């Protein structure tokens, strides 16, 4: 049995990570929960028999887990992930895994050549529909156009949580917190980007970061995309459209999909199984990789791609100019902070 520990006993751990562990209880067992609120950690541990800790380092030293699931606020991820890797544990971290590319690269440096590894929770790319789309490859023709829309709604109550809506605790706004799921799926299909032109702003929510962003993107393969992310949309939807030379493939859902949420003009469209885009599905693939001793999906350069994309989007929005992927290097201020150190771009009060 793989021995797992959860760090952070909040809603995402209770609603997604614990059920995912239960779905694979023939292979993995929860042995510890760590949270600064030990009562909350105890509640999450429930009747599982998992030990409860108030401090992550103490838990790592005492339990030596094989796998650590990080479910804390974003500004805590990098330190906790590196501590877990240095203790010999694999890590599965909620997005955004870090506040910047610089932090992500520090985590990668803490990985071993043969593990342990960190994998990011990007469950949207692992449903059977997305897997089938990637497996079809060139059978649909050359990739041409994509639409990537995350039009969600988050009210003032959502941002009443102290760490939300702040550059220093979340890294950015809806782009990196919500839209990144659909962006990661898009990138897994169309590949690396070359150039991005973006705008972003805080239109309505009482926060420091953006509540809307929009981008136009060119990919290495010549394809182009339009990307829209919002937390101001009363009718919520996650929408992806991929236009290839010979077919269109579309996905409409909200926070997760099954095969019925996909449509295509191609007679080749016929996913052989119906796996949801869930934490359960991605965790299964992570456990497979652990058992084989192989790097898991959504780790290393594979997971870095989405963080690099949102970095380019923020850089373009703040500077007001096109940004090329090869510009996002350690001497670029946006490599170190998604706001490039000029967060004043969003300091004006929203228009009433």
TrEMBL record:
A Pfam entry, by short name: GFO_IDH_MocA
Domain Gfo/Idh/MocA-like oxidoreductase N-terminal: 2-120
Cross-referenced SUPFAM superfamilies: Glyceraldehyde-3-phosphate dehydrogenase-like, C-terminal domain, NAD(P)-binding Rossmann-fold domains
Gene Ontology MF terms in the entry: nucleotide binding
Domain of life from the UniProt record: Bacteria
Residue span(s) of domain GFO/IDH/MocA-like oxidoreductase: 138-237
Record-linked InterPro entries: Gfo/Idh/MocA-like_OxRdtase_N, Gfo/Idh/MocA_Oxidoreductase, GFO_IDH_MocA-like_dom, NAD(P)-bd_dom_sf
Name the record gives this protein: Predicted dehydrogenase
Organism: Nonomuraea solani
